[in-house]
Amino acid sequence: MSEKNALAILGSPHVNGTTAAMLDWAISKAGQAGYTVTKINLYEKKLSFCTGCRACMDTRICVQKDDIQEIAALLKGCQLVILAAPVYWANVPAPVKNLFDRLLGTAMEETSTFPKPRLQGKKYMLLTSCNTPAPFSWIFGQSRGALHNMDEFFKTAGMKSIGKVVCANAKNQKGLPKQAAKKIERCLQG
Ligand SMILES: Cc1cc2nc3c(=O)[nH]c(=O)nc-3n(C[C@H](O)[C@H](O)[C@H](O)COP(=O)(O)O)c2cc1C
């Protein structure tokens, strides 16, 4: 049987918040779908800022020795990434953006035209929450902005989306809304 490893990344500082609830539900569904899931909490990781040295374009891994080495190894060894991040200023929180920056040369190779992906064949799923209620969360670019940013990283890396789930109006939700739970489940069944 082929290996089915999933990397679940919590990109929220709140381990009991809406984003974490979405991720925990996705982890349980991924487990039922046969994945062995490794969960990491980005806010617990030691990650310096990307210095823009671009050495990773050749080395394929950041030259700074901190927790990026472990995360890059998990990324390379998995078939599915589930990234959960709340909307901060219509974008992703800083640690998530920094993760993408630190993985530049792990994810892609530069050419004279378009970037060449380095993580082809893997799948990804995006989970996000925001306080703006739907449909304004999308219309005014709140969740749209965060999803666009996350998509840009994974698509450029050559990975294929299996779904995106938004939990809008988060501050008025008690627990994980049924609709979001169902949507997460559907993405992981396919
Ligand atoms: C710094 C910061 C910026 C935020 N920016 C937005 C925003 O642009 N749009 C929005 O709808 N909600 C915004 N929010 C609300 C968060 O998206 C909301 O608190 C989050 O969905 C809760 O997720 P959590 O339980 O994982 O923390 C912001 C919250 C913080 C702390």
How does this structure look, described?
The chain has 190 residues and is α/β, with parallel strands linked by helices. It has one domain: Flavodoxin domain (Rossmann fold, 3-Layer(aba) Sandwich), CATH 3.40.50.360. It is built from eight helices and seven strands, in the order E-H-E-H-H-E-H-H-E-E-E-H-H-E-H. It has helices at residues 18-32, 56-59, 68-76, 94-102, 104-107, 136-139, 142-156, 178-189; strands at 5-10, 36-41, 80-86, 108-109, 116-117, 123-129, 160-167. The strands form two sheets. The protein has a five-stranded parallel sheet with strand order 2-1-3-6-7, with helices on both faces. It has a two-stranded antiparallel ribbon with strand order 4-5. Helix 1 (18-32) runs parallel beside helix 8. The longest helix has 15 residues, at 18-32. Bound molecules: flavin mononucleotide. Flavin mononucleotide is lined by residues 12, 14, 17-20, 86-90, 129-132, 137, 142, 170.
Q: How are the elements arranged and paired?
A:
Elements (H helix, E strand, L loop, with lengths): L4 E6 L7 H15 L3 E6 L14 H4 L8 H9 L3 E7 L7 H9 L1 H4 E2 L6 E2 L5 E7 L6 H4 L2 H15 L3 E8 L10 H12 L1
Parallel strand pairs: 1-2, 1-3, 3-6, 6-7
Antiparallel strand pairs: 4-5
Helix pairs in contact: 1-8
The chain binds flavin mononucleotide (FMN).
